[in-house]
Amino acid sequence: MTSRSERRALVVGTGLIGGSLGLALRAQGWRVSGWDLDETRAKAAVERGVLDAVGDDLGADVAFVATPVSTVAAVARRLLDDPGRRPDLVVTDVGGVKAPVVAVVDHPRFVGGHPMAGSEQLGLDGADPGLFAGAAWVLTPTPTTDLAAFERLRTVVTALGADVVVLPPEDHDRLVAVVSHVPHLVAATLVNAAADDAVHDAALLRLAAGGFRDMTRVAAGHPGIWPDVCTDNADAIVAAFDRVLAELGAMRDRVATGDREGLLGALRRASAARRQLPARGARPARLTELRIPVPDRQGVLAEITSLAGTLGANIYDIGIAHSAEAAQGILLLVVDAGDAGGLRDALADRGYHCTVQELS
Amino acid sequence: MTSRSERRALVVGTGLIGGSLGLALRAQGWRVSGWDLDETRAKAAVERGVLDAVGDDLGADVAFVATPVSTVAAVARRLLDDPGRRPDLVVTDVGGVKAPVVAVVDHPRFVGGHPMAGSEQLGLDGADPGLFAGAAWVLTPTPTTDLAAFERLRTVVTALGADVVVLPPEDHDRLVAVVSHVPHLVAATLVNAAADDAVHDAALLRLAAGGFRDMTRVAAGHPGIWPDVCTDNADAIVAAFDRVLAELGAMRDRVATGDREGLLGALRRASAARRQLPARGARPARLTELRIPVPDRQGVLAEITSLAGTLGANIYDIGIAHSAEAAQGILLLVVDAGDAGGLRDALADRGYHCTVQELS
Fold this sequence. Notes:
The structure is a homodimer.
Chain A: E1 8-12, H1 16-27, E2 31-35, H2 39-47, E3 53-54, E4 62-65, H3 69-81, E5 90-93, H4 99-105, E6 110-115, E7 136-140, H5 147-159, E8 163-166, H6 169-200, H7 210-216, H8 226-232, H9 234-256, H10 260-276, E9 287-295, H11 300-310, E10 315-322, E11 328-336, H12 337-349, E12 355-358
């Protein structure tokens, strides 16, 4: 662990996310260097306190690539392949689709990342050091991910106040299609349908009450990122879209046929599910910590987090404690108390024998 | 005009809307009587200050029927047909679908109403005297509506802080299908799709960021009113749903075929339209008042407001000034300055010659 005064980070791309990252890291005492393709914006980033300096820093030990998705892989690869940099440099990105970039970069010290915050505003002007507080921040280790690199990145992200969610890249992409990509496209479609009608019915917009405004707020965001997102995650989006379209067709038919019971059932189910949606950053009342001695080798992390995912066990915190012997570490997993027993047994089946401790 | 101390209102049904109405009316000095099928709730309404007293008031000059939609017509008709009441009693309701109830009640002193506020909460506990401030409140006069009755109701509703929108009942139903009913059913469907996936992927709910929460908030509301709404407004909902489904299918195909330009175009259009959505209660910078001498007879109001609707002219305010001779009144319409000339010409074609005055 380096001392506080020595921590140095690189932020490439100083838009909303890169800018917020710079502010948040500097607030924690990091020295932050970086650049932007738009040199004017890079200079503005220094003026706004986002960067200590425009330019490279070969001594940085964490690099955040916050450039447009199409350029992330090339930038990340260039950083990782540069022999002049620290051999333990960990590189991450902030893009909304993970499997393609993780597959292309394919490096033990690249960990895909996706802070789920601030997508509706664009640009340095919206940069906010508190943007990540309480927000989900997905990290997507793979079987080749270096455990120590992952752990350093996770510590940094957690310190920014984010709620780290560990998922295989493909799972991330499938789930964000359901809770983000398809809803965004649906919101845009609802706005366009209303706008079409408003041409003939000026009163329509006056009837757009709070519910419609809430539903369509995301559609006001900058559309620029979406062609890339929809290209990179096309399969998952189409699959989720087709399921939603089928369910929408069923809902439409319930109205057309006067199926009052069917309507009531679907709406009751939705009301209950929406009320159960946990508040941002909410945790269950009872948590349990599993301490799992693991060999300090690639693949262990992905194996165990994927196993937890398969069992439906939500990982609320994750950490690694290294033992005196370099070859062995302790993986710490914090899960819902109700999931701990099943996960312990499944781990034992795979040769991992852990200790279990209830947290207060 | 009765003096302030004499104003007496009847509120039938003391749920969220009826309760809020009682509080708001009493805050303006009205004496409010009323009842609820649930006698416990009616008593609670008195305790909460919603009603002055549980019971009827034959001297009330305005009655708000805030009961479940299926009972509105019978309650309204009973009030209007009661020879013991004031002969100028005006009756209105607060339901979300207007054409069926207006057709069934079919009375010169019944004016359909729809305050577009607070649909997500249910019950007296959510009652709030400020619920209607700045909210759109649709009134749906017909060719048989009594002008004086309409005007008295409009004055009361405006005094509660609402933004009165005058529409034919069928237009109301068609427009709310687009901006309220279909979006609500879509929100419920998105929640159900996510809930289905969350059974297998506990992490999904942690990825449900602000956008998804905003989009689905309405789905948390009480489902009880929706079977009636969907039955009463089935045709308009199905028509709007089919258009939205067709546009959703097109959006899905843009993703499936990698049509980046098509996606960008649709999302740009939505972003621009959403940004142009006026803030709640917003008015254009320049307004013009039309003063239209009209015979004091049924049908004039519906004729002129429908004409404005046909021309796409948004009516921001409406009022009636009665002249000394009972047979003639002056209808005051406030519209966007850009719409005033066209409306004046169209009125002249129908024999209404108005004076036009720019408002500051």
